[in-house]
Structure formats: C-alpha cells, structure tokens
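Revision sheet: structure tokens.
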Amino acid sequence: MPTLRLELEYDGSGFSGWAAQPGRRTVEGSLRDALASLVAADSQMAVAGRTDAGVHARGQVVSLSAEQVPDPKRLAGALRARLPEDISVLGVTTAPDDFNARFAARGRRYEYRVLPGPRSALRRGRVLFHPTPLDLAALRAVARATEGQHDFRAFTPTQTLHVFFDRTVIDCHWIERGDELVFVIEADAFLRHMVRVLVGTQLLVGRGAWSQERYAALLDGAPRGAAGPTAPAHPLTLVGVTYDRPGSTR
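Predicted:
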C-alpha cells in the first residue's frame, strides 16, 4: 500500500496529548480532521511517539498509508492551510510501502529543560523552574547509570496497560545550554510518563535530597512508590526519531 512519511512539530500546550480522544483536542484528532478531505477514509496512520498532554514535538514522524495517496508536495501545502497554528508540517515524502512510523523506529529522543535560579517570564511555558542550585556532576552520574536495559516500572504509573517494563536507554545525559540544564534521553521505546518521572527523581539527587545509590536501586524493577515525583509536562519535547533506513534519521 503506498505510504507517505510526514514530519511534524507542535506546541503541546493546547492538546490533550497525541492520541485521539472523544471530546478532547488532540494532535491526532486535528491531523485527521485536516486529512479528512484529502485521503480516503480507510487510510492507515501510525505515529512514532504518542506524546502526553502538554508535551511538545519538533521531530514527530507519522506514516500515512492508503490505496491512493496524494502528491507529497500538494499534501504538505494542503495540510499547512488546514492545520491549526500550533501544528506545523516540516515535510511530506514518499516512503517504502512497508514503512510504519511506530514499528520501524529504533530510537526516540527527548529533551527536558530545567532552569535553576530565578524565573524567566518569557520561558515559563517551556522550562521547569528550580529555585535551588543543582549538582551537575551528580545529575550526570545518575543519567549514566540509566543507560542500558533496565526494568523501569518505578518510572511509570502503577495503573497501566504495560505488561513488559524493560526498556533500553541508548543515551542519557545532562548538558548545559546557556543558563539552563537540559536532560537528553534516547531509548528504543518509553513507558507512559517515564521521562518525566526520571527527571523528577534525578532532580532529587541533583539537589542532595537523595543519594546516587538510592536512585540506582530503582532500575531493577522497584515499585512506582519508591521513585520520585512526576515532573511537569510543559518542559518536555520529542526532538527526533531514528530509523535504520539511510536518509531517514532525524
């Protein structure tokens, strides 16, 4: 079945996440509404990462398959005219017929922005304000400990549809970007709220409330109650998705 690859960015502030939900404004719902008069009703859509409510994306990938698909350039132009201002189409290209944005993905990469110190009025919708100093060396140490395959059930809600909690973290580190500290993580897949609970828990270590050893003990399948709080959604952005095929890495 002919398939197109769509690359999107969106401001998640006004959405109840990616997945379509009755009575709620979602990214998927808005995209399907925009596509309604452009592709057949039985078209199939898959997304690389199902972002939560309030989470942003600047590297989201969607696959769209149908018996007949529009010309990529025309579809991109039509979508730009129909989508709301908080969703942008970065590009539409032809993909292999068997391409599925979710199942073909080998990694999803997120960034979470933290601003230690005074608040910034202009960044209030994009950063987590942290009023006390953070130990960057300690944050980097627990980030390194997070890499590899672990049982991450401590970092997802107890009430969950997940039955398998092992995930492989390909890269995990903290960087300085101006006056901000940015948590960067890439994994083969993520549990619900996983990145936000990792951040909330690592910040406990960064401000000296927890030891690094206490954090490391969570990576062997500890219960959710043993980990720290879930950090807010608004500083989190899906920045890219990695695929095996040449030319498809972002």
